[in-house]
Design brief:
Number of strands: 24
Distance between the termini: 6 Å
Number of helices: 14
Shape: elongated
Bound molecules: uridine-diphosphate-N-acetylglucosamine
Structural class: alpha/beta
Radius of gyration: 22 Å
Length: about 425
Amino acid sequence: MDRIRIVGGNRLNGVIPISGAKNAALPLMIASLLTSDTLTLENVPHLADVEQLLRILGNHGVDVSVNGRREHQDGSYARTIHFTCRTIVDTTAPYELVSKMRASFWVIGPLLAREGRARVSLPGGCAIGTRPVDLFIEGLAALGAQMEIDGGYINATAPKGGLIGAHYTFPKVSVGATHVMLMAASLARGTTVIGNAAREPEIVDLANCLNAMGARISGAGTSTITIEGVSSLSGARHRVLPDRIETGTYAMAVAMTGGDVTLQGTDGTLLETALETIRRAGAEITMVDGGIRVIGHGDDIRPVDIVTEPFPGFPTDLQAQFMGLMTRAKGVSHVTETIFENRFMHVQELARLGAKISLNGQTARIEGVSRLKGAPVMATDLRASVSLVIGGLAAEGETIVNRVYHLDRGFERLEEKLTRCGAIVERVSE
Ligand code: UD1
């Protein structure tokens, strides 16, 4: 099993290319199930989760061709992938596949909309909480689907003639359930209005792509989305938006180590709350041509309290990284997690590097320390694992991050991007 070895203490200087967003690429890829034409996605990141979803889509009949893995001078890749699903050959998404990646559950929306039925395994628990699927069930039922749970699977059946547009307001904001409703309602008869919809930029990206495919969606990016159903969707070409979580992660890494790094190919307007928070912690962040520039001072990190919230609030996917940064702040800060009930597994691991963190329910109290010291640590989930990398970059001596497969799910060529900026980070294979 691969490990990442970090020798901390170096400042980061240079350019880091930001990849296409994993959390946009996954629903966009799933949208290819909605049409028999070819959907072409540009800027698809090369990540374990993407590869896993390619296998899952293949199972349903999607033909995939990967085109032009073009390497740019700055080291970035641009991957264009063509997806063609002439016919859906299987409407079942089995447990073996869905349990490996929760987002694959989202195939339920397009399968149901296009074929009138889907049998999709319940995803099960995961490291950051129970993550139920009640909102998906309620939302699709509102469109007229019959939803039954049987033997760990959801059997969904559309009424004769297909799903029917409806007004449905989510009792709680869910990114995944909003994605699924957009896809399902696009092929429903009549108009659907979704209330309390997620407003994440990845929702807007999916809506833009669906509209390019012939859907009629308005209001994406606000809490109320209106979808006028159409009878079929066509192919389209769409570019995946930049990864705001990767952007925020590297911005925090620079704030932590000190240095001057340009994050290339990203868009600061995708993460204004996070960037403002990092500024308050002491880093200088400016918008530059084609990206953002981060200047960190390393030794002068100010404590800032955060509460995670749905977009446009501070993202839960940057919570662990921000806690990593706060471990070296001059003073006490508090991090409150409101989205997932068990997203604090990094606390014990950061403590191994010398961080002083105490937990009280949903809130962590972090007392900044003047130095962290390298140690062997364990990655527990995707975002938690990168907080350990951030800690390791600022720690004295060697940090070994075990169970790197978590990192590979969501961070493209992390060690290479950091090494180019002067960090000592290497992958050790056994
Ligand atoms: C997506 C992101 C993930 C991010 C999360 C919150 C992808 C691939 N993943 O996950 O990185 O951390 O948004 O921004 O885009 N919930 C229910 N019932 C449901 C569905 C969700 O109670 O049927 C709850 C969840 O347990 C959680 C909250 O709603 O407490 C938000 O989850 P949700 O927005 O659905 O997260 P995901 O779409 O799974």
